[in-house]
Amino acid sequence: MPRMCLPDLSRHIVVWCLLLLPLAGQAAEGPARYAYTVNGFDNSLAGYRIDAGGMLHFNGHWPVPSFPAAVGVHPSGRFVLTASKAATAVGVYRIDPATGAVHPVPGSPFATRRARSPFFITFHPSGRFVYVASRFDGVIVFRMDADSGRLTQIDGSPFAAGKRTRSLAVHPSGRFIYASNAYSNSISAYRVDSDSGRLSPVDGAPFSTGDLAPIDEALVPLLDYPPEAGAVPYYLAMHPSGRYLYVANWGGGSLSAFHIDEQTGRLSALSGSPLSTHVNPYAVAAHPSGNFVYALSWGSDGVVGYRVAPGTGELTQMETPAYPLAGKAPVAMRFSADGRHAYVANFHSNNVSVLDVDPNTGALMLRDTVQTRSGPWSIALAPGLPPPAPERAIALSADGVLTSLRQQPADGQLRPLARQNTGARPAAVVVSRDGRFAYLADPGGDRVLAYRIDAQGGEPAPVPGSPFAAGRSPRALTLDINGRYLYVLNTGADNLSVYAVDEDSGALTPTRGSPYRTGRGPTTVAVDAAGRYALVLNTEADSISVFRYMTNLSPLVFEIAKYGSPFATGKRPLDIAIDPSGKHAYVANAGSGSLSLFSIDVQSGVLRALAQSPLSVGGTPAALAMHPSGDWLCVLNRDSHELAVYRRDRVDGGLRATGQRVAVDQWTRSLVWGGQGRYLYLVNDTGRAPARFEMAPDSGALTPAGAANGQGWSALAWPVFSR
Question: pTM surpassing 0.85?
Answer without folding.
Answer: yes
